[in-house]
Inverse folding.
């Protein structure tokens, strides 16, 4: 049996059920064996900030999804939601580790013990204003229909970005994206199936699905506007301009809603990015208080 010695091998091998990786298994250091040298001409601070944007979205959405554990409508769906959350945690771990590898730790390292890995320091010891997640992933779950519509939107955007990031000049980002597209394709398909089932189901399920779409659509207003960091890294061949994926996202979401017999809400006007620049609602501190509470109470604990 072939032995995959590095995470690079596992990231690059997503065919025929080989090389599957779950959060916290297979290796102790998420970037073990990977050349983390920053490509020539790329600012480490910009690369780290971009990894935080992608990693924070995954981390925060995973936390939202775990709030459904023990509350999902079916046992099978509870397992599915947990698996989606674990996929996102895996992506977050790799991306935050990449951010840490280029020195983007800020105040988090001052609060964490030296023994805590960079990705844990970034996840558990940053304050809300240091997070770069979007309002789409931060918003409360609402009911199950709204959760599935939000997951559909978030997975569609993320999949479109990751598909393009496979060509990134940063080999670490490219490897993370190559592994992530398979997971995200499943996330999008799973959410789409639920939106179709709910939208084209009973009067009550249709009403809830429509209400979910109406609640989620305004959260898309700042997803397609690039920050200065994204603009610089896109020009350097490292990142993806969010405006580039807009047409694809609109097409996919429109098709799913129409097939689900749902009215496509009016698309919001593009707005300046808020979460990407550290501007958040009161909902994020509440979520982080739960996510970070244990680690902050016992920063030196091991288990």
């Amino acid at each position: 049996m072939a032995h995959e010695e590095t995470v690079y091998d596992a990231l690059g091998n997503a065919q025929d059920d080989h090389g599957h990786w779950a959060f916290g298994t297979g290796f102790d250091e998420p970037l073990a064996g990977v050349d983390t040298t920053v490509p020539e001409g790329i600012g480490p601070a910009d690369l780290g900030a971009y990894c935080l944007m992608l990693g924070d979205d995954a981390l925060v959405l995973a936390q939202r999804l775990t709030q459904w554990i023990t509350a999902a409508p079916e046992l099978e769906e509870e397992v599915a939601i947990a698996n989606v959350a674990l996929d996102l945690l895996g992506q977050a771990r790799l991306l935050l580790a990449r951010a840490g590898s280029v020195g983007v730790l800020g105040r988090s390292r001052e609060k964490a013990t030296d023994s805590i890995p960079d990705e844990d320091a970034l996840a558990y010891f940053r304050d809300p204003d240091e997070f770069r997640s979007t309002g789409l992933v931060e918003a409360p779950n609402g009911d199950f229909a709204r959760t599935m519509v939000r997951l559909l939107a978030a997975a569609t955007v993320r999949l479109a970005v990751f598909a393009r990031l496979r060509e990134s000049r940063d080999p670490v980002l490219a490897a993370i994206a190559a592994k992530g597209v398979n997971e995200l394709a499943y996330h999008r398909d799973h959410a789409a199936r639920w939106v179709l089932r709910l939208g084209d189901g009973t009067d009550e399920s249709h009403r809830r699905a429509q209400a979910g779409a109406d609640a989620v659509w305004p959260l898309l207003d700042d997803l397609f506007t690039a920050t200065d960091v994204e603009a610089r890294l896109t020009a350097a061949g490292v990142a993806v301009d969010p405006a580039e994926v807009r047409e694809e996202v609109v097409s996919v979401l429109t098709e799913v809603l129409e097939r689900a017999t749902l009215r496509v809400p009016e698309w919001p006007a593009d707005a300046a990015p808020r979460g990407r620049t550290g501007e958040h609602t009161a909902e994020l501190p509440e979520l982080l208080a739960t996510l970070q509470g244990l680690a902050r109470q016992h920063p030196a604990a091991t288990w």
